[in-house]
C-alpha cells in the first residue's frame, strides 16, 4: 500500500485510495477556528494549520469551490463539517493525523500508484492570494500564520505587483508601511533599473536586503520578472538572519515551479521609449509531476526622464523542482542578467533651482549633470540557489538553502560635487569617478525543524547554523571635472585625469584606490514557538561570529604620495527575541515583543580597542485582526528602537571616535490589506516615525538659503557648526499614508474590465542633519486599467491588456536633500502591455 497522500492540483487524476484507520487522533478535542469565506483549497490549508492535521484532496474536487468558513471553538470534526457545508464534499480520516476530502457518499481505495505534488495549502513563499497573504516564512523561518508572529510582517503579493506593474523594488514598496522607498537616490530619473539598489529607509534606518532568507551583497539588482513576492520585516531581525539594520529587512522570494501549468508571454511599451518583452512558463517534466520546471525571461530597452541616461537589460531565470520521494524535495534556481545600461543616475541637482527659487527659474527634471558618452553603469551578474528539504517523520524535518552569487560592474560618471552652487547662482562644480568592481558571495543556511507536544502545549522549534562569505575586488578612481552652467549646460569639455602624475592644483583632488575585502559570518540560532490554545509565545536566540579582512592602496599622484593599509577585524554578538501573541476566537490578535540586532563596525578607539558592533533594541506592541468571514488582514503597531554603540567624536582626543552615540526611532504603523469581494481588492497604510540623534558629541554644519542676503545671492551658504545631538534624521518623513484600490466591473457589457487608483502622501523631511531647512510634503496619484479580451470573445481567451500611470498629475517634487543638493522625484510614467496566457 502506498502511503503518499493525494495533493491539491492533480487535475482529475483517478486514483483508488484505501483508507486505513491505523490510529485514532483526538478528533473530539476543541480548537478555536477563525477561517473566513474563501476558496475551499486555501481554507482547507488554514484549517489544517489551526487543527494540526494534514489535509489532502484531488485538485479537481476543490477547483472553483468556495466555503463560507468556520469560526468559534468546537471539536475538529465539527469544524471540518462546517467548513465543507454546502460544497457537496465530505471527508474520511486517514491514519492518525490526516483527513482526505472526498465526494459525498464516496468510498476510495488506493492502488499501487505513486502520486507527486505538494500540500495544497497557501505556500508561505508563494504569490499570496489577491492582496492578502495568510502566512510567512520570513518572520520565523517556519510556515507560520502572520497573526501568530509577534512583529510587523508586510507582504507585497504578486497580484499587487501585477496590478501596479512595478518595474523595480522601490515601486513595489511604495504602499508598504514603515518604508520610505523614494528617498536618497530612489527613482530620481524614472529608470527601471532592476529590482533593488539604492537606499531604502525602514523605520528610520537603512534597510538590509535579502533573497530567499539570505543576505544579498550582489551589485546587480534582481528584476521584478523573477520575483514571486516581497516581504518586509519591520524592526530588528538579527535573531534569524545575523547582521541587519535595526529598522528591519526586505526579503525577496525568487520564482520557482508552480503546481499548475503556467504559460505566459507579454510585450510592453511606455513613455521614455520603453519596450519590453517577457515570458514565464512552468509545467511538469514527467508524467507523475514529481519533476517540474519553470523558466522566466525578460528583455527591455528604455530611455529615462534624464537626458543621456538609458536602461537596457536581458535576463533569464530557470528553475526546477524534484519531489524525490514522499519526504524529500529539492529545488534548483538560476538567475542571470546582463545590463549594459542600468538606468541609474544618482547625481543630485542643486537645492537652488529645485527646492528653492533659482536665478533663472526652476531646473527641469531632464537636466543631466554628467557627460554624454562618459556616464554609464554596466553590470552583469548571476546566482545559483538550491533549497532542500527532508522530512524524517511527522515531527522532524531538515531544511537547507545554499546560494552562490557573482557580479561584475563598471561604473563611470561625472556628477555634482558635494557643496553649494558658486556665488553666481548658475555654476555647479563637478567631479568624476570610475569604479570597476567584482563581487562573489556564498551563503549556506541549514536547520532542523521539529513539531512536538508537551501535554496540551504545541511546540514548533528550529535550530540551525548559517554561513556567509563575501569577497569584493574593487577600484576607485577620482578626477576633477569642469564646472557646468545649470541653465545652459555645455558638454564635451570634460577631460579625465585619472592617475596623472604632476597634476596642477586644479586637479589636486584626483586620486585612486584599490581594495580587496573579505567578510565572513557564522551564526548559530534557535527558536521555539510555544502554542497553548490561543496563546503563542516565541523565543529565540543567536550567536554570531564575524570577521573582516580589508586591504587597500591609495595613490595621490599630484603629491607623489601613496599609502597601503591592511585591516583584519573580528567580533561577535548575541541577539535574541521574545514575544507573545494571543488570538481571540473572533480574529483579534494582540501581541508584544522585544528584539535586538547588531551591525559590525571597523576601527579602533584611542587606546587601540576594536569597536563593538552597534546594537539595535526594539520594544513593539500591536494588534492584528483577521475578521471571521472576511478575507482581510488589519494591523496596528507601536514601536521604540534605540541603536546604541554608535560612533561619535571623542571630545578628549580629536580625530578619534568613541561609542557613546545613539539613534532613536519611535512611532506607529497601521495597515489594511483586503480582498473585499471577488471584484474588489484594497490596500491602505499610515506611518508615523520620529527619528533623531538622541546621543552624540558630533557637530554638523547647517546650510541656509536667503535670496535677500548679499552673501547668499542665488546659492546656499554654510553657517557655524551646531551640535548633532537632538537633531532629527534627514530624509526620513514623519508622516506617510497611502491607499490603493482595484475594482473589477461586475457582469455586464463591460465584463472583463478592471480599474485601479492609488494615492501616496509623503510628509515633509529635513534637508540636512543640521535641520536648517525642510523638504516640503508631496502627494502623488497612480491609476490603471486592465481588460480581459477573452470576456468579449472566446477566440481571444487568454489575451489581457493593461496600462498603468504613476504620478498621474506629473507633479514636480523633491524626494530628499543632503547639505545643498536634492533628488528630484519621478515624473509621470505610463506603461502598458499585452499578455497572452494559455
From TrEMBL:
Q: Which UniProt keywords apply?
A: Cell outer membrane, Ion transport, Iron, Iron transport, Membrane, Receptor, Signal, TonB box, Transmembrane, Transmembrane beta strand, Transport
- List, in alphabetical order, the Gene Ontology terms for molecular function in this entry: siderophore uptake transmembrane transporter activity; signaling receptor activity
Q: Which residues form the Secretin/TonB short N-terminal domain?
A: 53-104
Record's bilayer topology term: Multi-pass membrane protein
Instruction: Give Gene Ontology CC terms.
Output: cell outer membrane
Give an example GO biological process. Answer: siderophore transport
Mind telling me which Gene3D superfamilies this protein's record contains?
A: 3.55.50.30, TonB-dependent receptor, beta-barrel domain (2.40.170.20), TonB-dependent receptor, plug domain (2.170.130.10)
Where does this protein reside within or beyond the cell?
A: Cell outer membrane
Chief place of localization: membrane
Q: Which InterPro entries match?
A: Beta-barrel_TonB, Beta-barrel_TonB_sf, Plug_dom, Plug_dom_sf, Secretin/TonB_short_N, TonB-dep_rcpt-like, TonB_sidphr_rcpt
Family membership noted in the UniProt record: Belongs to the TonB-dependent receptor family.
PANTHER family (alphabetical): FERRICHROME IRON RECEPTOR-RELATED (PTHR32552), FERRICHROME OUTER MEMBRANE TRANSPORTER_PHAGE RECEPTOR (PTHR32552:SF68)
Can you say what this protein is called? TonB-dependent siderophore receptor
Q: Which organism is it from?
A: Acetobacter vaccinii
Amino acid at each position: 500500500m502506498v502511503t503518499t497522500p493525494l495533493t491539491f492540483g492533480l487535475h482529475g487524476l483517478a486514483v483508488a485510495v484505501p483508507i486505513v484507520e491505523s490510529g485514532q487522533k483526538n478528533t473530539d478535542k476543541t480548537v478555536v477556528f477563525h477561517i473566513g469565506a474563501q476558496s475551499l483549497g486555501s481554507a482547507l490549508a488554514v484549517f489544517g494549520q489551526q487543527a494540526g492535521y494534514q489535509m489532502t484532496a484531488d485538485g479537481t474536487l476543490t477547483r472553483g469551490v468556495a466555503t463560507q468558513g468556520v469560526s468559534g471553538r468546537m471539536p475538529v470534526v465539527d469544524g471540518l463539517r462546517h467548513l465543507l457545508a454546502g460544497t457537496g464534499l465530505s471527508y474520511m480520516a486517514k491514519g492518525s493525523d490526516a483527513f482526505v476530502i472526498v465526494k459525498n457518499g464516496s468510498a476510495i481505495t488506493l492502488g499501487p500508484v505513486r502520486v507527486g505534488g505538494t500540500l495544497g495549502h497557501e505556500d508561505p513563499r508563494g504569490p499570496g492570494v489577491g492582496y492578502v497573504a495568510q502566512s510567512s516564512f520570513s518572520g520565523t523561518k517556519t510556515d507560520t500564520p502572520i497573526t501568530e508572529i509577534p512583529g510587523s510582517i508586510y507582504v507585497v503579493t504578486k497580484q499587487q505587483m501585477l496590478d501596479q506593474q512595478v518595474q523595480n523594488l522601490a515601486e513595489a514598496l511604495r504602499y508598504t508601511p514603515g518604508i520610505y522607498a523614494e528617498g536618497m537616490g530612489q527613482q530620481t530619473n524614472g529608470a527601471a533599473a532592476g529590482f533593488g539598489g539604492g537606499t531604502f529607509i525602514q523605520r528610520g534606518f537603512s534597510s538590509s536586503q535579502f533573497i530567499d532568507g539570505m543576505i544579498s551583497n550582489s551589485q546587480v539588482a534582481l528584476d521584478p520578472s523573477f520575483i514571486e513576492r516581497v516581504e518586509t520585516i519591520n524592526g530588528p531581525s538579527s535573531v534569524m538572519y545575523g547582521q541587519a539594520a535595526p529598522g528591519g529587512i526586505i526579503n525577496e522570494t525568487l520564482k520557482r515551479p508552480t503546481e499548475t501549468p503556467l504559460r505566459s508571454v507579454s510585450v510592453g511599451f511606455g513613455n521614455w521609449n520603453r519596450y519590453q518583452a517577457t515570458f514565464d512558463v512552468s509545467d511538469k517534466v514527467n508524467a507523475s509531476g514529481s519533476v517540474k520546471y519553470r523558466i522566466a525571461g525578460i528583455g527591455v530597452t528604455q530611455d529615462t526622464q534624464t537626458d543621456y541616461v538609458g536602461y537596457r537589460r536581458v535576463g533569464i531565470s530557470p528553475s526546477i523542482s524534484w519531489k524525490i520521494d514522499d519526504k524529500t524535495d529539492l529545488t534548483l534556481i538560476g538567475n542571470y542578467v546582463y545590463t549594459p545600461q542600468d538606468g541609474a543616475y544618482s547625481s543630485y541637482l542643486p537645492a537652488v533651482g529645485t527646492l528653492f527659487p533659482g536665478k533663472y527659474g526652476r531646473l527641469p527634471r531632464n537636466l543631466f549633470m554628467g557627460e554624454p558618452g562618459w556616464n554609464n553603469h554596466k553590470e552583469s551578474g548571476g546566482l545559483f540557489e538550491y533549497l532542500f528539504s527532508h522530512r524524517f517523520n511527522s515531527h522532524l524535518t531538515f531544511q537547507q538553502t545554499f546560494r552562490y552569487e557573482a557580479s561584475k560592474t563598471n561604473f563611470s560618471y561625472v556628477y555634482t560635487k558635494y557643496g553649494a552652487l558658486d556665488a553666481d547662482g548658475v555654476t555647479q562644480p563637478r567631479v568624476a569617478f570610475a569604479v570597476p568592481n567584482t563581487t562573489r558571495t556564498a551563503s549556506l543556511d541549514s536547520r532542523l525543524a521539529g513539531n512536538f507536544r508537551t501535554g496540551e502545549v504545541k511546540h514548533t522549534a528550529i535550530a540551525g547554523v548559517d554561513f556567509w562569505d563575501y569577497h569584493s575586488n574593487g577600484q576607485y578612481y577620482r578626477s576633477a571635472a569642469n564646472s557646468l552652467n545649470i541653465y545652459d549646460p555645455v558638454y564635451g569639455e570634460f577631460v579625465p585625469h585619472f592617475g596623472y602624475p604632476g597634476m596642477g592644483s586644479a586637479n589636486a583632488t584626483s586620486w585612486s584606490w584599490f581594495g580587496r575585502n573579505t567578510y565572513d559570518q557564522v551564526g548559530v540560532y534557535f527558536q521555539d514557538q510555544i502554542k497553548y490554545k490561543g496563546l503563542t509565545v516565541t523565543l529565540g536566540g543567536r550567536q554570531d561570529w564575524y570577521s573582516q579582512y580589508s586591504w587597500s592602496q591609495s595613490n595621490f599622484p599630484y603629491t607623489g604620495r601613496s599609502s597601503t593599509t591592511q585591516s583584519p577585524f573580528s567580533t561577535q554578538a548575541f541577539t535574541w527575541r521574545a514575544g507573545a501573541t494571543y488570538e481571540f476566537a473572533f480574529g483579534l490578535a494582540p501581541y508584544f515583543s522585544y528584539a535586538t540586532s547588531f551591525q559590525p563596525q571597523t576601527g579602533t578607539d584611542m587606546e587601540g580597542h576594536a569597536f563593538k558592533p552597534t546594537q539595535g533594541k526594539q520594544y513593539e506592541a500591536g494588534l492584528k485582526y483577521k475578521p471571521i468571514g472576511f478575507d482581510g488582514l488589519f494591523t496596528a503597531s507601536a514601536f521604540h528602537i534605540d541603536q546604541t554603540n554608535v560612533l561619535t567624536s571623542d571630545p578628549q582626543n580629536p580625530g578619534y571616535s568613541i561609542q557613546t552615540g545613539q539613534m532613536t526611532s519611535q512611532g506607529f504603523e497601521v495597515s489594511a490589506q483586503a480582498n473585499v469581494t471577488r471584484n474588489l481588492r484594497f490596500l491602505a497604510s499610515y506611518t508615523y516615525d520620529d527619528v533623531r540623534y538622541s546621543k552624540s558629541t558630533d557637530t554638523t554644519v547647517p546650510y541656509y538659503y536667503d535670496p535677500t542676503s548679499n552673501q547668499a545671492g542665488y546659492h546656499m551658504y554654510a553657517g557655524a557648526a551646531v551640535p548633532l545631538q537632538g537633531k532629527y534624521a534627514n530624509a526620513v518623513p514623519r508622516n506617510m499614508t497611502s491607499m490603493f484600490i482595484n475594482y473589477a466591473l461586475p457582469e455586464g457589457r463591460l465584463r472583463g474590465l478592471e480599474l485601479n487608483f492609488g494615492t501616496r502622501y509623503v510628509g515633509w523631511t529635513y534637508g540636512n542633519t543640521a535641520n536648517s531647512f525642510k523638504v516640503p510634503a508631496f502627494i502623488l496619484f497612480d491609476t490603471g486599467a486592465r481588460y480581459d479580451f477573452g470576456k468579449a470573445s472566446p477566440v481571444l481567451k487568454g489575451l489581457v491588456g493593461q496600462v498603468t500611470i504613476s504620478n498621474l498629475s506629473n507633479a514636480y517634487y523633491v524626494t530628499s536633500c543632503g547639505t545643498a543638493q536634492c533628488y528630484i522625484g519621478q515624473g509621470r510614467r505610463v506603461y502598458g502591455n499585452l499578455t497572452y496566457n494559455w
